[in-house]
Amino acid sequence: MAEPIALLGGGAIGQLLAALLARQGVEPVIIGRPGTSREVREHQLTRLDGKRFRHRLCHLPPESMAACQALLVTTKAYQAEQALTPLLPRLCPQTPIVLLHNGMGPQQRLAQRHPDKQWWAGTLTDGALREAPCSVRHTGLGQRFAGPLGEGGTLPQGLAAIGFEMDRNIHLRLWQKLAVNALINPLTALHRCRNGELTRPEFLEPLTRLSQELVQVAASQGVVLDAAQVLALGLTVAEATAANRSSMLSDIEAQRKTEIEAISGYVVTVARSAGLEAPAHHDNLQQVLALEAQSLG
Ligand code: PAF
Description:
- The protein has 2 domains: 5-168, Rossmann fold (3-Layer(aba) Sandwich), CATH 3.40.50; 172-296, N-(1-d-carboxylethyl)-l-norvaline Dehydrogenase, domain 2.
- Helices cover 40% and strands 20% of the residues.
- It has 10 helices and 11 strands.
- The protein starts with a strand and ends with a helix.
- The protein is globular, with a radius of gyration of 19 Å.
- β8 and β9 form a beta hairpin.
- By secondary structure, the chain is α/β, with parallel strands linked by helices.
- The structure holds pantoate.
- Pantoate (PAF) is lined by residues 102, 180-181, 184-185, 195, 237, 241, 244, 246-247.
């Protein structure tokens, strides 16, 4: 039998992927926090057609992690590095570690600090809502891509089974996803609005500035994007997810830390290192950090 796929992070996306894997006959295991105990829990997925799928899912503490065909990291961006630390010595050098969080920064830092590992990144645009600790609803069918941050490698079989496509230019896709998040997330958090409201005329100017700055910063890294296309992509996603609260707005409302540092913060850091300025992203970074400090009390 094929080795299981391990998931680090049991939030909505982690649970959705676990259920999709189980439906395809690929065993998922969830890696919990240090100090948690091994247990098997009953999980439920409400599918897009409303039908329910129930499965038993093994939760393991990091110290019990065994061989797996891939490790999928579905934590928040700011949790990824710390959560991975106890696992790295337990992973074979050939095992792909697929980072699926929003934003950028952890991917580059981890690949640099641990060059002996197989670092991959991925993006997925599915919507998922955690309705109870072990119950998740699939709210939108998305596209799923993964690819190695370095050379070579083949897409793990379990990922192909749940519709991930191999993307050898995953860097470009990460920048495109970063662009969508850097346009939508801070503005929805600052204006406390749903994604669709960003298509109103008063947001056109700030969204245009954010797109132009991001394209210049990406160019400094050899990534060619077009400002009009970035703006159009942001507006298309805002429209397609019009009724949704962005993850950043949800984090602010739930008084949680946000991923702003891996989103606007990443754009500002890269701009600085390239001798550029990104004032619109800088403003968003400062304002969301202030809002976050207020909400975290
Ligand atoms: O972070 C989010 O909320 C999502 O990535 C996106 C695409 C902005 C839609 O809400």
